[in-house]
Write the structure tokens for this entry.
Amino acid sequence: MTATAPREQGAELLPLLREVGFPPTSAGEHDESAPDVDRKAAVLALAERLTGIRDTESLLQDGTWEARTGGGERAGPDHLK
């Protein structure tokens, strides 16, 4: 498996960000001239596109959630501040 350079990974993410309503520029910066978006809805839409899991109301209310660090370890209270 070949690792993808961070800049290349970001380039793949830009179209998804635009698709869900976040308006990044071609450099990946926030476009201040773009209309406001519902950021919570955009984040949930982005999470669905990245994971393939649709966040439904019942999943959000009744699901079991576990936080992990970027390295995959369980995140304790110090990570959640």
